[in-house]
Design a protein that fits this description.
single chain; mainly alpha; 2 helices
């Protein structure tokens, strides 16, 4: 696995990860030797990722709205 954990993962890679995990969940007797890779732990990591992505999208929307408000206020001031 790559270790440059300061960069975003490409959407195509995340899709491949999701597809692989969905296929993995279909294996009824899946029991990894490393307990870090159980279906439950991967499911928890996936849920945490999706929650973080949702929070990021909400924060970006709030920042975009704040910028729009600031631009409108600047024009109100400029045109006064």
């Amino acid at each position: 696995m790559a270790k440059n954990e300061t960069r975003r993962i490409a959407p195509s890679v995340l899709k491949a990860d999701k597809d692989a995990f969905n296929a993995l969940k279909a294996i009824p007797d899946y029991a990894p030797s490393n307990s870090d890779y159980t279906v439950a732990k991967v499911e928890t990591a996936r849920a945490k990722m999706e929650e973080a992505q949702a929070l990021e999208a909400q924060a970006k929307a709030a920042a975009d709205a704040a910028r729009d408000n600031a631009v409108a206020a600047e024009w109100d001031y400029h045109n006064a």
